[in-house]
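Entry 0007
Protein: Probable membrane transporter protein
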Amino acid sequence: MELLTYLLIGTVAGFAAGLFGVGGGLIVVPVLYIVFIQSGYGEAVSMHLALGTSLATIMVTSISSILAHNKNHAVLWLVVGQLTPGLILGSFGGAAIADTLSSQKLQLIIGIFSLLVGINMFYSAQTKSNLQQGQSINPYWHWFAGAIIGIASALFGIGGGSLTVPYLSRSGLTMQQAVGTSAACGLPIAVTGALGFMFFGAHEQIHIAHTIGYVHIYAFIGISIMSFITARQGAKVAHRLSPAMLKKCFACLLLFMSMYFLSKALLL
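Output (C-alpha cells):
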C-alpha cells in the first residue's frame, strides 16, 4: 500500500512536470510532506525527508529530460560545465544548511519561494518577454550563479529550473537553449543535493524504515518509476493547450501550496 501511494505521487508529479514545463520537485515536496506527516514520521523530520527524497527522484527524471533536449541540440554543454562546479558546491552546502534548520523555518522558506514563483509565473503568463536574444554570455558569473542556484535548489528540493532558466535567458540564451541547458544542470544539483541529505541525515539517528539519511528509498523508487513515464505524456498534452493558461493554472497551484506552508509555519 505504501509503495502504491508513491507510485501515484510519481504519476501526478511526472505528468504535472511535463505539462507545466518545470521540475517535479515543486509538486513532490509538499505532497511527500503531507504523506510523511500522515504516516506518523513527525514534524521534526518530515520536511527534511521530503526535500531529500525529492532531489533523489530528480536524478532519474532529469536524465530523461536531458536526452530529449539533447536530441534537439538545445543543451549547451560548455555552459553546463561552467555552471557545474558552483552547482555542486552550492547544492551540498544547501543540504548542510537545511540540516540545521527546523521544519518550521523550512516551511516558511518554501512557502515564500512558492509564493514568489507563483506570482512571477502568473504575471509572465499575461506579458510578453522583452528579452533581447543573442547577448554574450559572461562565463565569470556562472560559477557564482551556480553556487546560489545550488544552495536554493537544495533548500527547496528542486532541480533548479525555475532559477536556472531565467538566469540563462538573461545571459543571452534562447528560451529553448535555456530550458535544455537548465535540464542538464539539474542532474549535478540532484545528485549532490541527494547525497548531501543522505550524509547529513545519517548523523541524525532517524529511526524510520526504508530510509538512508533524509532519503526515503520506497518513495524514491515509486516516484522515479512513474514520473519518468508520465512526464512525456504531460509534455504531449501541454503542446495541445494554451501556454498562458498552463502558466496560470500552475501559478494558482503554487499559490495554494504557498498558503499551505506559510499557514503551517506561522501556526507551529
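Curator remark: Confidence is low (pLDDT under 50) at residues 129-135. The two ends are 30 Å apart (CA to CA).
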